[in-house]
């Protein structure tokens, strides 16, 4: 029969391991929960930072556009021109002109006309004025201008 001290020692270590295992299990669960919440908070922070950059970029654009528009209005003194990509495409289609030829009338490249029609870019104030003059022209005047070029 083994020594009673060794049996007692083995039993105590077994019970201690069982208790420690139970404690560690709760700590592991808490750790997993904390990691998940940390990951969620990081995602929220990155989304908020992205939104902040977007808003800051938009407000900076609006401020520069407002400053530019105020300067342009003071210089030109004319009416504020509006631009619509759909209206530009419709006008070009109505005239039956290619983007390159329409660009010659306005004084820009054909690719620029495509970008304006697709909404990828917007014309500057001076270009808006030229677009307005082209819009006011009739088919005969446009053909005369093209022949002159």
From TrEMBL:
Protein's name according to its UniProt entry: DNA-binding transcriptional regulator YiaG
Pfam families according to UniProt: HTH_31 (PF13560)
Coiled coil: 31-58
Keywords: Coiled coil, DNA-binding
Presence of the UniProt keyword DNA-binding in the record: yes
HTH cro/C1-type domain: residues covered: 88-134
Top-level taxonomic group: Bacteria
The organism of origin for this protein: Variovorax boronicumulans
Keyword Coiled coil found: yes
């Amino acid at each position: 029969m083994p020594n009673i001290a060794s049996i007692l020692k083995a039993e105590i270590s077994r019970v201690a391991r069982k208790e420690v295992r139970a404690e560690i299990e709760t700590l592991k669960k808490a750790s997993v929960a904390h990691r998940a919440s940390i990951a969620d908070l990081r995602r929220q922070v990155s989304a908020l930072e992205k939104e902040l950059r977007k808003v800051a970029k938009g407000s900076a654009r609006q401020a520069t556009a407002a400053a530019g528009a105020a300067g342009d209005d003071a210089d030109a003194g004319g009416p504020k021109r509006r631009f619509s990509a759909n209206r530009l495409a419709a006008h070009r289609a109505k005239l039956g002109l290619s983007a390159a030829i329409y660009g010659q009338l306005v004084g820009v490249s054909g690719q620029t006309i495509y970008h304006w029609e697709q909404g990828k870019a917007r014309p500057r104030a001076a270009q808006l004025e030229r677009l307005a003059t082209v819009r006011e022209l009739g088919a005969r005047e446009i053909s005369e201008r093209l022949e002159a070029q």
